Amino acid sequence: MRLLESIRVLAGSRAIAQRRMLNHRLRAIDEELARLNEEIQLLGRRAALAQTHLVRQQELVSESRRRSLGFHGCGASCSSA
């Protein structure tokens, strides 16, 4: 009987140790997931900012081209057109 009881105690101790190890792994995974989510959000904000910058640059290029062709938006009666 003592041998059986010793086996049960050892099995219980081993189960507790495994549960602690798995909980530790899960916490590490959760922390990594949170870090990656923050990084994804940051990259999304950077992408949105880059898109805004690109659109503005395209607008400036278009405006520059219009001006170089003499279309500056003051109307058909302008003498400089």
Short note summarizing the structure:
By secondary structure, the chain is an all-alpha fold. The chain has one helix at 2-68. 83% of the residues lie in helices and 0% in strands.
In words, what does this structure look like?
This protein is an all-alpha fold. Helices cover 83% and strands 0% of the residues. The longest helix has 67 residues, at 2-68.
* Largest sheet composition: none
- Annotation field: number of helices: 1
Which regions contain 5 or more consecutive residues with pLDDT less than 50?
A: none
Strand-pairing-aware structural class = mainly alpha
Shape: rod-shaped
Question: What's the average pLDDT?
Answer: 90
Q: What string, H for helix and E for strand, traces the elements in order?
A: H
- State the helicity in percent bands: over 70%
Rg computed from alpha carbons, rounded to a whole number of angstroms: 34 Å
Terminal-residue CA separation: 107 Å
Number of strands: 0
Strand percentage lies at under 5%
